Amino acid sequence: MARPTRVAWTASGALVVVGAVAIGGLAAGAARHTGHDAPAGKALVRSHETSGSAERGGQNSRDTSTPIKGSGSRPDSVSSASTADVSISADDIKAFVAAHSAALKSKNRAAFIAGFDTKHPDLALHEGQLFDNLRKIPLTTASYSVSTVSGSGATATAVVTFVHQITGVDSVPVVERYKWTVQRTAANGPLEVVAVSGAPAEHNYPAPWDAVAGLTVLTKPKVVIMADDSSAAFAKSHASALESDAEYDLSHWTGGPGTAPGFAVFLTADRARYEGIYSQDRAESVGVTVPIAAAGNTGNIENTSGFYPSSRIAVDTTQYKNLATVDADIVFKHEMAHAMIGPFDDQSAASGQNHLWVVEGFAEWESQRMYSTADLLYNGVSLHAYLAKHSIPTALPTDSQVYSANADVSGLGYFYSHMAMRYIAAKYSPAKVDQFVLYVYKHATGSTCVDDAMKNVLATTTVQFTQGFEKWLRSSV
């Protein structure tokens, strides 16, 4: 069996290239979960990157998305009619959005783009492309509703929620939120959308169906693959391999029901598009996993429940093509491992104890568990040589080490995290790895989540575990 080169995930669960190959984890604030709807101090996206911010980083509430609008869009104030004649009410917006939703359900393309300022072709073109893309996605549920309306007179701003459920991927309906700028230009005239962007603090926008014209969509039992023109051929030639990677991760889980049933993966070789998708902006990563909030958790923008039942994976295939086949599979298995157990993660508050070594260690171990410790290479050398260079750790990796902005520091943190999971598998059993990780995920906001998992799952203490881990590294690597 070919020996994989070192695959290390960096801060925020994003897959990054460090030395040889680095794999990320989750996007949050900076990675693990790209800080979408995440409470301060918690990351929402599991990605693979070497970003300086921790995976459970705080959120940026600024609206950084670029609105889609024509160069000649009308001004916010309209003087051709009295304010009373052109005033837009919340009921007006709700009726408009309801018609938009009905058009999608009835597969009426013309009705779907109606009202999107046809005087500016870019808006109508974008909505038409969105309609065409959504028609290709296997959706169990797909509808639009209004979350909030603000403004007065002839111009209003609405937060419009796209409630959807990808068949075989999402266990429950999830959301993507848009900001629509709506105007009425004549007395009692029709509404027109003059600009579209992601809602403030909405990091799940733009999704591939928003950003790509002519999206390629391939559906397998456990994975829905989306790709732009730069990776359409790659998607078609690797679809079976991605399905195998999904089946691999799901078949190994022994922690019980509740995992993600499947995975949605977006592929692109366009670096700018990759960094912009889901507003993750990860310059260092080549893969990222972004958590998606469930519909109905809240009536506002912020997801206060801490429940993210599904995820979206994006991979830069330019980097993938530069990897050996064995390493490429590791990238997808790592990301899918994050997405698989993401529904268990309590993100309702800041993390109470350093535990990113559990998050990233599990994904590293899961993606490479088919290899013996002796078969692994790290940065092109044996683990023994790598460890001899960096020494045996006397403590478990801290969150700041795992998600350090310094690639070498982060890479070492990923390495120790991976080895700690191998130690649990060797000393206690692979099933105990799943039980241990599950306990930490479900109690992630607790101040002693790792200590409690040591006690309740492994019947040991963190100090005793660390001592045993140190001895195991000396004798096994």
Automatic annotation (TrEMBL):
Residues 32-82 are annotated as: Disordered. Residues 50-68 have a biased composition (Polar residues). InterPro entries: Peptidase_M4/M1_CTD_sf. This is Peptidase M1 membrane alanine aminopeptidase domain-containing protein. It comes from Catenulispora pinistramenti. The lineage of its organism: Bacteria, Bacillati, Actinomycetota, Actinomycetes, Catenulisporales.
